[in-house]
Write a structure and sequence with these properties.
The protein is α/β, with parallel strands linked by helices. It has helices at 16-27, 68-78, 88-97, 115-121, 125-135, 147-157, 173-180, 208-221, 236-246, 262-267, 282-289, 303-309, 333-343, 345-358; strands spanning 3-9, 33-39, 56-58, 82-86, 106-110, 141-144, 164-166, 195-199, 226-230, 252-256, 270-273, 294-297, 316-317. It holds the Pfam family Glycos_transf_1.
Amino acid sequence: MKKKVLFILPSLRGGGAERVMVTLLKHVDRDKFDLHLALVSKEGPYLTEVPYDVPIYDLGAKRVRYAFVPMLKLIRQLKPDIVFSTLGHLNIALIILRFLMLSHTRLIVREANTVSEIVKLSSKSWLWKFLYKTFYKQADLVICQSDYMKQDLIENFKVPEQKAIRIYNPVDVDTIRKKANLGENPFLHSPTSPNIVAIGRLVYQKGFDRLLQAMPQLLKEKPNAKLWILGEGPLEEELKEQCIRLGIVEKVEFVGFQKNPYVWLKHADLFVLSSYYEGLPNVLLEAIACGCPVVAVDHPGGTREVMEALGLLDRLEYAELTLPLHLFRPLNEECLKQLSQLFGLERIVREYESYLSNL
């Protein structure tokens, strides 16, 4: 008998968690699992990437708090063996609903970020700490993207050690490289060098403010350098005003969300991860898959694990971002081999399947 697995997500907007879930939907073994997908709000650029054999259920809500009743109705109707969700607020909502689900249904929650850092920044920090401590331990399994995240949940949020497991995010190296070869070099019409790329939502977490702060010093050594920021978000105007104050308006381009960021990474001279915290940064792994030189600022989360595992600790900046010129040198071949071995698609999908089978 195949196990019926219902994946539940807020939407398929362009985030790392959504991309991981779509990757799993594409590659989990259909001989063993019957896959279904429910979305709180059926929207986002990754909708077109959901495989044709996965039914999509639109819960028709704008926010998770309004989706409790439709979620419960769907779960009772489908009678899944496993409900699998990701993103903290949705995970907590499903754990609260747990006692109303069928007794045989198991619940897996995947945490998408470093929880201590998320709750620290919330205006209701005490409430979120209480919710995580009270409810996360009641899930059947809590998947963490890095050892750092796993220890954070065990030590600070009382998740039992036997329930917390670490599975790295999958990197579909072959697909990424194919997409990187689609379309022309985006820098062809810009006579600048080096071209630096940063990718992510324009929110505090991603630290674009400190990346902008590092640009004037780099421009003293590389006057033709240019920074390209791929992403959308609430801080766009604030970041543009910072560019004005720093006198670097002509050296920074905000190009919005790009469905194929890989062609940018293939042709860039450097990718910068300036985040204040991360879970496990997919975009860093994808930049490496494209062969793009990288630099990251040391921060809470799994980034140090990635850099250490791939022999890139010399590309980890501490305290502040300075962008020294040695960072622009190419990555070595050993790093690219290690990426495929540790984060390769087949390995990570098999890990997920193993837990889905044995739960």
